[in-house]
DNA sequence: CGGGCGTGTCATGTC
DNA sequence: TAGACATGACACGCC
C-alpha cells in the first residue's frame, strides 16, 4: 500500500506539474477531497471507514476464548490470509507512477544561434530541413540512433550519437547544448540554423512558466518528492540574464533563434496501464538526427526504467489522419490519446477478467463501476448472515465467557449443594431409597444443548424442575429439602413410578455404575470437586478398590465430557468466525474492486489530460515562419530518454506499426 | 436402512 | 509427576 500510495502521489503531483506547465490549473485539493476518494485515501491514508476491524482480536479479548491458543493461531492465520488476499488484490492493479519531465527552450529572438555547431543527435532543424532529411538516409541512421538511445542517457551525446559527419557537424546533438545556447547571445556564427525554430514559438511566456515551476518545486520540496533535479533543470527555462539561468541555460552552440518554449513532458512508470510508453527503448527505430526535432534533457532521468520511448505520433495520431492537413494545431488536432484510452479500456477488460477469475460476476463488476459516483457501497447481502452470525456470536461469546468460569462456578455451586445434600449421616442412608426420589441428571445437555454453562441448567426443563439443583440422587429423601419435592400426598404412586423410571432412564451409565457400586456421594461431586476436596471426600469413606477405581473413572470421564463439550463449542465458534471472515473478505474484495474501478477512472482522466497536453504542446509549436505544424505531417514522439521529438508523420506511423508488432511477437 | 448429527468415551498430547 | 485440559477418533443412539 505504501508503494501504491507513493505511486499515486508522485504520479498525481507530477501530472500536475505537467499540466501546470501548459497553463492548465490543477487543483490537487480537489483530488484529495471530493473528486477522487481513493486517491485521497491512498495519499492521506485509509479513512476510518475503510479501516478493518480485527474481529478476531476483538473476539479474543471480549469473550472467553481469547485464552485458547489454538483459536488464536487460527485467527492469526486467517488474518494473515486476509491481508495476503488484499495485498494480492492490490498487486493486480498497479497505478503507474506518472513522471513528468518537461522543459522550455527559449529561442534567441535575434536568431543568432546557428546550427552548424557539431552536436550529437538532437537536431532541431527547420521544417524544411526535417522534411528533406526524412527521406534520405533514414535507414542508415536508424540503427545508429537505436544504439544511441540504448546507451546511458546521462551521457547526452548518447541520446543522439554522432551519426554521419555532415549532419552532426551541422546540428546540435543534445539538450545540454541547446539549453546553453539560449542565454548566450554570442553563439558561433555557424549555429544559425534555427534548429529549434520549428518547435519554438514566440507566444510563450517564460516567466509565467518559471513562476509555475517554482511553485511546483516548492510543493515538491515540501512533500519530499523524489524529483530528479535534472528534471527541474530541464523544465526550467530562463531568459538570458536571469540569475537562475546559470543552471538552466542553453548550450552556447545550440541554434535557437526564437523565444519559443517547448515543453517536454513524459509520463513514466506506466509499466502496465500506461502502455502508451513502451519500454522498448533500444528497439525504437529513430530517424537520424537531422530528421528529428528532439529535445533531450541535459541530465536524463531513469526514464528507461520507467518507460521507454514511444512514438507518440503513432499512438496519438491514427494513420488515417495523415491526409487531414491542418495548419492550425489545437482543437482540430486528432485525438492523440486513442491508444491511451484504448489502454484504459483494456484495463477495464482485464478488470472484468479479474472479476471472473476471482469469482466476481462481470455484471457485478460493471455495477460496481456504475455505483462509483454514488459511492453507496456494494449492495452485498451483508445483512443476513453477519447479523445473525454476530448475534449468534454474541450469544455464544457470552455463553462461552460464562462457560470459561463455569468450571469454577459449577464446582463451587456443586460444592455448596453438595454440602447441603451431603452430611456424615448420609453414610447410613439407604441408597436404594434415594434413587427414586432424586436422580439428578448431569447430562441435562441432552435436553438443553450447550446449556452446561447455565448455572441453572434445568431451567429449560420445567418437568425436571422438581429435581433441579439436586445432585444428591443417592441421598435419602429425608435429607433433601422438602420444598424441592412435591408433597407426598399429591403424588400418586403410579406417577411416582413413572417418574422414577423416566429419571432412571436419564441417568448416565456412570451414575448407574455408581449406584450399583454404592458410591456414597454424587457423581457431580466426584466430577466437579477440586482435587483437594475430592481427596478429602474420599478419605472420609471406607471405599473398596473397585469403588475408588470407579470414582476415578467417573471423575475422569465427567471432566472429559465437559472438555469435549467445550471443545465442540469452540469448534463451532471457529466455524462461525470463519464464515464471518469469509464475508468480511468478500466485502473487502468488493471494496477493493470498487476502488480499482475508481482508479481506472482517474487513470482515464489522466490520460485524457495527457491528450490535451499533447494537443497543447503540439499546437504551440511553430516553424521558423511562425506557422504551426500540421498534425497530419508531424507528430511528437517520445523517446526512452525522456526527450520529445518532432518527427514526420510517415516516420511516426512506421514506428508505431513497428511497435505494435513487437508486443504481438512477444506474446508468441 | 443409511446418513447426518449430537453426544459420550478413549487415547494422546500439552501445560 | 499428577492433574487438568484439549482434541482427534470412534462408537452409539436418535432422527
TrEMBL record:
It is a single-pass type II membrane protein; Single-pass type III membrane protein. It is found in: Endoplasmic reticulum membrane; Nucleus. Residues 550-613 form the BZIP domain. GO terms for molecular function: DNA-binding transcription factor activity, RNA polymerase II-specific; lipid binding; RNA polymerase II cis-regulatory region sequence-specific DNA binding. GO terms for biological process: cholesterol metabolic process. It comes from the Eukaryota. GO terms for cellular component: endoplasmic reticulum membrane; nucleus. Residues 108-160, 369-426, 478-509 are annotated as: Disordered. Gene3D superfamilies: Transcription factor, Skn-1-like, DNA-binding domain. It holds the Pfam family bZIP_Maf. Keywords: Activator, Cholesterol metabolism, Coiled coil, DNA-binding, Endoplasmic reticulum, Glycoprotein, Lipid metabolism, Lipid-binding, Membrane, Nucleus, Repressor, Signal-anchor, Steroid metabolism, Sterol metabolism, Transcription, Transcription regulation, Transmembrane, Transmembrane helix. CDD domains: bZIP_NFE2-like. Residues 494-509 have a biased composition (Basic and acidic residues). Residues 116-131, 375-418 have a biased composition (Low complexity). Residues 568-609 form a coiled coil. Belongs to the bZIP family. CNC subfamily. PANTHER family: ENDOPLASMIC RETICULUM MEMBRANE SENSOR NFE2L1, NUCLEAR FACTOR ERYTHROID 2-RELATED FACTOR. This is Endoplasmic reticulum membrane sensor NFE2L1. It comes from Rhinolophus ferrumequinum.
